[in-house]
Design goal:
Layout: E1 7-19, E2 36-53, E3 56-68, E4 84-85, E5 89-98, E6 102-111, E7 131-140, E8 150-159
Antiparallel strand pairs: 1-2, 2-3, 3-4, 3-5, 5-6, 6-7, 7-8
């Protein structure tokens, strides 16, 4: 991801996603009928500190999502009526290593189950579990004038137990 500036910065992004086919982890049709739609607005406040760890700038952030998606992991059924506060992401540690025309990053995040969730409903805006996430990224600016860049980000999530459901 792109390295923020020293001090406070704010980001606001909107995501819209639609799928008409649900697949399992092997890419085969899951047999679930219907479509999935997700619309979210994410507001992130970041603070880039003057501190360094292993030569990397230390950043802390919080992301607050407002979204309308419905999800139910029990039946893999989706609804579109849910709207509200989703699961808040806290990023207590992110490191950025600036290079000549690139930036490397590492982050640890925790997703709090703040969004509404009920295992018997399909209009959930939260997932009903705590998640931990490790991410590794690289942004490259191929031109000296930094007129454009491209990024690669890899994330690994570790999910907790789903609230009131025998699933992890």
């Amino acid at each position: 991801s792109t390295r923020p500036v020293l001090g406070w910065s704010y980001e606001n992004r909107t995501v819209a996603y639609t799928s008409t086919r649900q697949t399992d982890r092997d890419g085969d049709n899951s047999g679930v009928d219907g479509s999935l739609s997700h619309f979210a607005n994410y507001t992130t406040a970041s603070w880039m500190s003057p501190w360094l760890i292993f030569g990397g700038n230390v950043v802390m952030a919080v992301t607050v999502p407002l979204q309308n998606s419905g999800q139910n992991p029990r039946g893999l059924a989706y609804g579109a009526d849910g709207f509200g506060l989703g699961d808040v992401q806290l990023r207590p540690l992110q490191l950025y290593w600036p290079l000549e025309r690139a930036t490397l990053s590492f982050a640890y995040s925790v997703w709090l189950p703040t969004g509404g969730f009920d295992a018997t409903k399909t209009d959930n805006v939260g997932k009903g579990f705590l998640s931990h996430e490790l991410s590794f990224g690289w942004t490259h600016r191929p031109f000296a004038d930094e007129s454009w860049h491209y990024s690669v980000m890899s994330r690994m999530s570790f999910h907790g137990e789903v609230d009131k459901l025998d699933a992890t």
